[in-house]
Amino acid sequence: MPSPRRRKPDPVPAVHPVPEYAVEGQTAEWYGEMKSALQVPWMGVVTMAFAHYPTFFAELWRGLGPLVVSRPFVEECQALQVMVEDKVASLAPPPVTARLAEMGYGAREMDQIRAVNAVFSHGNHAYALIATIARLLLQEGEMSGGGEAEPYDGRHVPDVDVPFVLIEAHHADAPTRSTYEDIKLILGLPFVNTDYRAFARWPSYWRAAWSDLREVAGNLPHEALCHAYHDQLVQAAETGLPNPGGLDGKALRDAAEADAGVEEVLEVVRLFQWLLPGLCVNVAYLKSQLEDA
């Protein structure tokens, strides 16, 4: 089976994320386990969309649980972060701190924005790997890594303390809602990712940052970096990571078939596996903008 190529589904499939407030029982336990294991304060839209297919989600998380707490998985996430943050300079992100100061932002406020960015800069890579593993297995590939995996001891989450507030469209003022519509238009997505809804807690910052980011999103250098990130994900899923939970392509396909059919689930997985490299590049771009000039 050839390695998965980066490809956006056309048409974009309908996604049905199952939000945290709407789950109970076993699914709520899985959500709590996943956030604890990944050391993140939010369930990604990707995994909430996967939870719409409960048999598929159960089998995926059963196999992922022992992997995501392993040293190889954490170190691969860290390597992805280093790579994308090193290479994002090629997109020449314009500094934003001086503009924020002119608007009246103080050092404390800018540090809070940096702290929110640090949370996503840490956590997004785990979700990107999860989507890549799911796509590989649904497309009849397999993970070739062995079954042994050294646990990662301790915390790898950034040492930041900032309220995690998401500005939903129905909370937002008209200019922010307009920005959300522009994000969906430019990125070609039917929803606004969690990251952008968190940055919109500071509406004037987010409008300034997005106005820069939209100018490069999807251009050739941006796409080249997305493809490089995608390729590193695929290499890790195929050969770089162990498989202590015994994830198996047939078992995952059977689980998807029990819910809605392999093709429907695969198209949703493809969508997230396509968009997450772009999201990780974009968050790295935004992080670079916040570095002091």
List the helices and strands and how they pair.
Blueprint: H1 25-38, H2 45-50, H3 54-68, H4 71-87, H5 97-103, H6 107-138, H7 174-187, H8 194-199, H9 203-216, H10 220-240, H11 249-259, H12 262-289
Mean pLDDT: 95
Q: Beta-strand percentage?
A: under 5%
The topology string of helices and strands comes to HHHHHHHHHHHH
Structural class: mainly alpha
Distance between the terminal alpha carbons, to the nearest Å?
47 Å
How many domain regions? 1
Please provide the count of β strands. Answer: 0
Largest sheet: none
Q: Oligomerization state of this entry?
A: single chain
* Shape field: globular
**Alpha carbon gyration radius:** 19 Å
Name the helicity range. 55-70%
Give me the number of helical elements: 12
Low-confidence runs (pLDDT<50, min 5 residues)?
Answer: none
Give keywords:
mainly alpha, 63% helix, 12 helices
Describe the structure.
- The protein is mostly helical.
- It has one domain.
- It has helices at 25-38, 45-50, 54-68, 71-87, 97-103, 107-138, 174-187, 194-199, 203-216, 220-240, 249-259, 262-289.
- Helix 1 runs parallel beside helix 3 (54-68), helix 3 packs antiparallel against helix 11 and helix 6 packs antiparallel against helix 12 (262-289).
- The radius of gyration is 19 Å and the shape is globular.
